[in-house]
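sry for the spam today, last one i promise. struct tokens for design, 515 residues
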């Protein structure tokens, strides 16, 4: 009897977690379907400007000595009248980036550009604080925001500004591209992840009348809309998402240009990727805590409320993933096994496990394949080479992102940890970090050790599952092997520990050299 209740409780918990996580898989499938339905609903500008308005280009940066020169070369090449273009460098740097910015301002001022560097020694509010202060003194009624690693095309304002002839448009967002997509396996996988978000999710949300959010860069805002929505607030570390929801609740409309690409640099090592994902995950949970009930109380369409709920809560699935890690071992190795009408071989259990397998794994693959068909129509088939590594990396980020979820739920602090960028250094990342310690990614702490622990655990589970699954639960085994959780955890954990060990050896060599 005790064994019966133990099996029942464990299986109910296991399948409850799987059902919840499969719900997000169903949402991805819905995105694919909605894209097909709305693929021809491309946004159209209402008209052209008689006299072009003044645009302020805002370039927030913090210790970006390796990318600032290339950024300004691209910004000053934008095809727009000089008398209608203002450039603001929003520099919060604590290194010599400030001096480099000053030199660049002098250089471009002599060429007739209206360019200023607004340097802050107090980083209150981080990026949001810098944007808030700069917007107060911006000359333009429209603001093009570009992070330091982005490289805008010369025609970006020519492509974007016609949409603002509609007085109800607050934001026009362009799609992110990837300058270093083929640098290594990690950048290839990140590119696929982001293509899914930008080519599918953002496009569908915009074209189907749902809310979508500004991505912090590569977009133009109407300054009046920012003010009407309450301005930049810095009680979260994803100020772009926060402002987006507040503006759309106020009735402002957004436009997403899926066919116009603004390229940027992807993190090239696992620590940079973890830092970026930690910030995005924690920030989205903070915005969820701040805005979700406000969205549901607002007079907006039900489909917008439902999509915003899915968007703001999807990162909670990382907590479900960690819980699943605990629940999966006895299920996959036969310690917990259903019997009778609910045995693994029974028709109802086969149907249940296949359905969950489909929504937890197959729909994710379909989502990213569809995105690559949009982004790379001639080479989309290459995504099949990366599907298993993609699933493994998604699982491997579970510990890092679950930690970010918990911080977003319970922490009131909003410390902005930037992603290091190395665009024009001409050096390897390791050489840069040796000479400039401030350009290292966020310290990993104990996360890599937990990742390796999970990797070892799953390796043992998979060994047991290979025997039990073949004879008892083949569908569950196929799902488990496809996800390859132990590979993902070993990759993320070992990648971070390698840097920790290298740093210890570097400090040891330095101390020996000094002595």
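last one done:
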């Amino acid at each position: 009897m005790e064994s019966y209740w133990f099996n029942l409780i464990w299986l109910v918990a296991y399948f409850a977690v799987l059902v919840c996580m499969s719900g997000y898989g169903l949402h991805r499938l819905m995105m694919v379907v909605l894209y097909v339905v709305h693929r021809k609903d491309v946004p159209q500008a209402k008209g052209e400007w008689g006299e072009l308005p003044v645009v302020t280009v805002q370039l927030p940066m913090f210790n970006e000595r390796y990318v600032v020169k290339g950024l300004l070369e691209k910004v000053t090449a934008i095809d727009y009248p000089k008398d209608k273009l203002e450039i603001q460098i929003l520099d919060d740097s604590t290194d010599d980036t400030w001096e480099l910015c000053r030199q660049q301002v002098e250089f471009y001022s002599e060429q007739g550009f209206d360019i200023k560097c607004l340097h802050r020694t107090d980083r209150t509010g981080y990026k949001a604080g810098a944007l808030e202060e700069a917007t107060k003194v911006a000359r333009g009624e429209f603001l093009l925001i570009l992070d330091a690693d982005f490289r805008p095309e010369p025609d970006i304002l020519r492509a974007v500004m016609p949409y603002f002839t509609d007085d109800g448009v607050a934001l026009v967002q362009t799609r992110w591209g990837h300058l270093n997509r083929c640098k290594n396996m990690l950048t290839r996988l990140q590119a696929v992840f982001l293509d899914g978000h930008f080519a599918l999710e953002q496009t569908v949300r915009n074209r189907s009348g749902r809310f979508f959010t500004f991505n912090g860069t590569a977009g133009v805002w109407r300054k009046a809309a920012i003010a009407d929505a309450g301005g930049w607030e810095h009680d979260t570390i994803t100020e772009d998402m926060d402002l987006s929801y507040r503006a759309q609740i106020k009735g402002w409309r957004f436009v997403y240009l899926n066919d116009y690409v603004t390229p940027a640099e992807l993190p090239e090592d696992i620590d940079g990727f973890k830092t970026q994902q930690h910030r995005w995950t924690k920030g989205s949970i903070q915005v969820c805590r701040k805005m979700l009930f406000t969205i549901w109380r607002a007079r907006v369409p039900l489909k917008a409320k439902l999509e915003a709920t899915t968007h703001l809560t999807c990162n909670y699935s990382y907590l479900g993933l960690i819980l699943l890690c605990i629940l999966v071992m006895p299920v996959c190795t036969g310690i917990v096994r259903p019997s009778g009408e609910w045995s693994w071989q029974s028709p109802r259990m086969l149907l249940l496990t296949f359905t969950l397998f489909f929504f937890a794994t197959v729909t994710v693959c379909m989502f990213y394949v569809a995105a690559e068909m949009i982004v790379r129509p001639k080479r989309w088939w290459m995504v099949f080479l990366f599907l298993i590594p993609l699933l493994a990396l998604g699982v491997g980020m579970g510990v890092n992102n679950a930690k970010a979820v918990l911080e977003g739920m319970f922490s009131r602090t909003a410390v902005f940890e930037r992603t290091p960028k190395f665009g024009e250094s001409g050096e390897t990342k390791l050489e840069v970090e040796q000479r400039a310690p401030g350009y290292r990614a966020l310290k990993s702490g104990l996360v890599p050790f937990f990742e390796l622990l999970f990797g070892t655990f799953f390796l043992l589970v998979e060994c047991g599952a290979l025997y039990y699954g073949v004879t008892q639960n083949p569908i569950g085994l196929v799902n488990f092997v496809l996800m390859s959780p132990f590979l993902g955890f070993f990759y993320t954990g070992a990648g971070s520990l390698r840097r920790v060990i290298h740093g210890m050896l570097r400090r040891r060599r330095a101390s020996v050299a000094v002595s």
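The radius of gyration is 24 Å. ok im logging off now
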